[in-house]
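for ur thesis appendix - Glycosidase. copy paste whatever u need, i formatted it the way the template wanted (i think)
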Amino acid sequence: MVPQADFEQNGFVPNVIFPTGVVQRGDTLLVYYGAADAFTAVVEFSQSQLLETLE
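the 3d part is after this line
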């Protein structure tokens, strides 16, 4: 993940994102994260695709 959205690039600490928690639902990972030290958001990943990429 890299800061791309406006709210990720502008804020108290611009261009910073950091994970804060993960929820697994089957093969889906919901990654909750902080953005620019001013916002929170969630992004969805496929666990199998993530593990495949890491191999």
